[in-house]
Write a structure and sequence with these properties.
By secondary structure, this protein is α/β, with parallel strands linked by helices. It has helices at about 25-35, 45-50, 60-65, 70-75, 135-150, 165, 170, 175, 195-200, 210-215, 215-225, 230-250, 260-265, 275-290, 300-330, 410-415, 440-445; strands spanning about 95-105, 115-120, 125-130, 155-160, 180-185, 340-345, 355-365, 370-375, 380, 390, 405. It has 4 domains: about 1-65, no CATH class; about 85-215 and about 285-330, Nucleotidyltransferase, domain 5, CATH 3.30.420.10; about 340-420, no CATH class; about 425-465, no CATH class. Helix 1 packs across helix 2 (about 45-50) and helix 1 packs across helix 3 (about 60-65). It is extended, with a radius of gyration of 39 Å.
């Protein structure tokens, strides 16, 4: 008996605190109090808090409550899944797709070159490295033009969204190669061009570069290898004996002229029967030597090049099929009106903002690209299935999102943030008159300085509690 209320408790010893059995109608409030007491903690923290006073709150009930909490969906950490992909990039021919990226080498402090441009063919993984003194778009365009003149322009050139690849001087390359298509990966998503990103840190697979890239270099190299100085000493020894044979051949040359004089009159050459027979007998031997010569060196290398490219494509295809099969097994397909959470990059959120933002799927195209809406509008760009997580329950409805305008992810996070997003004002003022003039960002915006301003030192513009 607790006051005027009769409660059921678990059997206990005399010195133990009572452990109650919560009623069915009180289960929700009991779990809610434990959830708030743990600061929106995970299931194990809630179980530890609830079992201090109650005996019949199950783990399933706690998990269901946690999956219905919007704040928990926003702050949950996304599990890392490797090898998941929606649409792998497949290339069949050399030069059909290339990727380019820059590697920062400023920490090396060697010479005037601070950057290295990595240009990679997607099929053969053949790389061309070019040192750069800066990231200016003009210098990047100059090196790309030189590579195009060396290997030829690809059909598709893929890069990230850096200003050195999106400037107008880069796009002017299309004036020289109208068939060139330039594509850019998703912002802050290096997996879009993962092949060249891996080449920046890992050595590429060992492949014969000339056997998988071009035909001309191998045809030039064999002649340089064949003339070693071993053959010349053999040639003079073999030339001396043939020098004696020509004099033995010269005397017989006098007799043949007598023979043709006797042969010509009796042989009836005028008839038109013999001439057609002679060319037919001469043509086959003239064709045979030409068919034998190319099969010895050049055609063999061409066949090797074709087989190497075919093996590379088949290997990529089999790997892509495995990755897609695994992705479909791990990730369920989303539907319209499903609630999802998209992770927010660190550069787009402040310290007090959650890890994820809640959205709802509003459209799916034929390529399984998802259009997602939030409270402030529709997010710019489309998302693939591996870029968001599905919520177990529908916490947002059509009335909770806006579909009449398009916003960026950073703007959406800033509008839903309690602290104004990653762009909140902070200053680094110094001196005796700290934060008392318009030179201070906080003073100019008419806001008080916070704990991140000027190393948390005291000033006249701070809030006095």
């Amino acid at each position: 008996m607790c006051g005027d209320v009769l409660k059921l408790i678990r059997r206990r010893n005399a010195n133990e605190e009572p452990i109650y059995f919560a009623k069915l109608e009180d289960t929700y409030d009991t779990i809610k109090r434990a959830h708030i007491a743990t600061g929106h903690g995970d299931r194990d923290k809630m179980v530890k808090e609830v079992t201090k006073k109650y005996a019949n709150i199950t783990h399933d009930a706690i998990s269901i409550y946690k999956s219905l909490c919007i704040e928990c969906q926003r702050k949950r950490k996304r599990p890392t899944t490797k090898g998941t992909v929606v649409r792998p990039i497949l290339t069949k021919n050399f030069g059909s797709r290339s990727q380019v990226d820059l590697v920062d080498m400023q920490s090396m402090k060697q010479g005037n070159y601070k950057w290295i441009m990595v240009y990679q063919d997607h099929l053969t993984k053949f790389c061309v490295l070019r040192p750069l003194t800066s990231k200016r778009a003009a210098e990047v365009a100059y090196q790309l033009l030189d590579i195009f003149l060396l290997l030829g322009a690809p059909e598709i050139l893929q890069s990230d969204n850096g200003s050195e690849f999106t400037a107008s001087v880069i796009t002017e390359l299309k004036l020289l190669w109208p068939d060139l298509v330039m594509v850019h990966g998703k912002p802050r998503h290096p997996q879009s061009q993962g092949s060249v990103e891996r080449a920046n840190f890992e050595p590429p697979a060992v492949k014969p570069p000339f056997e998988s890239t071009s035909v001309e270099p191998p045809s030039v190299k064999p002649p340089s290898v064949e003339p070693p100085a071993v053959e010349p000493p053999v040639e003079p020894t073999s030339v001396e004996p043939p020098a004696v044979e020509p004099p033995s051949i010269e005397p017989p040359t006098v007799e043949p002229p007598v023979e043709p004089t006797y042969v010509e009159p009796p042989s009836v050459e005028p008839p038109a029967v013999e001439p057609p027979v002679e060319p037919t007998s001469v043509e086959p031997p003239s064709v045979k030597p030409t068919s034998v010569e190319p099969t010895s060196s050049l055609s063999v290398r061409q066949n090797n090049i074709i087989s190497q490219r075919k093996r590379a494509y088949e290997a990529k295809l089999s790997q892509a099929e495995r990755m897609v099969k695994r992705s479909r097994r791990i990730m369920d397909r989303g539907n319209v009106e499903n609630n999802v959470t998209i992770p927010i990059p660190m550069v787009d959120r402040s310290r007090g903002d959650p890890r994820n933002i809640m959205e709802m799927i509003v459209d799916i195209d034929e390529n399984d690209n998802y259009t997602i809406a939030v409270q402030s509008g529709i997010l710019s760009g489309k998302y693939t299935r591996n870029q968001f997580d599905l919520c177990m329950y529908e916490l947002y409805s059509e009335d909770d999102v806006t579909t009449d305008r398009i916003v960026s992810l950073r703007s959406a996070v800033q509008q839903e943030s309690n602290s104004g997003g990653q762009g909140f004002a902070k200053c680094n003022c110094a001196g005796s008159k700290r934060c008392q003039t318009n030179r201070c960002k906080c003073f100019k915006l008419k806001v008080k300085c916070n704990s991140r301003c000027h190393s948390s030192l005291h000033c006249e513009n701070k809030v006095i509690l």
